[in-house]
Specification:
Layout lengths: L11 E5 L2 E4 L3 E6 L2 E6 L6 E5 H5 L9 E5 L3 E8 L5 H16 L7 E8 L11 H18 L4 E5 L8 H4 L1
Parallel strand pairs: 7-8, 8-9
Antiparallel strand pairs: 1-2, 2-5, 3-4, 5-6, 6-7
Helix pairs in contact: 2-3
Length: about 170
């Protein structure tokens, strides 16, 4: 036995510690019940970097994963259990984009995705959803001013295409 852990999903294989290459019809990342799925209908080579707690420096808080269409675009992905810390998630993504931007493995373009599991708070009041939406719009605008596309969505809403981040 060679001691290497099995791939995280069918169609993927480890190319180095913390990095998988995948060519299946979908690539997904998942953590604590929150999942983001990327479509790959042409079976192109995709990369999944297990970034936080593996590839990234141990002393920093970073996005959970970087998934990418190799040589075209990378997407920093942060998965959150709820909407209670979207600003903190945005800070993690911003830090990841800065660090990954200096890495020789990165693609020419970098975008970001934050997926959260549910809307919650200490009081489940009717105004919670509009406040969450307003917070999301503010964070997205902050990234756009810096020239980075950021999507923030509730888990399970849709599957993503890399074109979503290129347009």
């Amino acid at each position: 036995m060679n001691g290497q852990k099995p791939p995280s999903q069918d169609g993927c294989s480890w190319v180095e510690e913390c990095i998988e290459e995948c060519s299946g019809p979908t690539l997904y990342v998942e953590e604590e019940g929150v999942r983001a799925t990327f479509r790959n209908p042409r079976g192109e080579r995709l990369r999944k970097v297990h970034y936080d707690r593996c590839y990234a420096p141990a002393e920093s808080r970073q996005a959970d994963f970087i998934v990418g269409l190799i040589g075209v675009i990378d997407v920093a992905v942060e998965l959150k259990g709820s909407d209670t810390n979207i600003k903190g998630a945005a800070d993690q993504v911003e830090s990841t984009i800065e660090a990954w931007g200096a890495d020789a493995k990165r693609a020419p373009r970098i975008a970001a995705l934050i997926v959260y599991g549910r809307i919650e708070g200490p009081k489940r009041l009717p105004g919670r959803i509009p406040r969450t939406r307003a917070l999301i719009l503010g964070v997205v605008a902050r990234f756009l001013r810096r020239g980075t596309l950021l999507l923030i969505e509730e888990t399970g809403r849709r599957q993503y295409s890399f074109r979503d981040f290129l347009e």
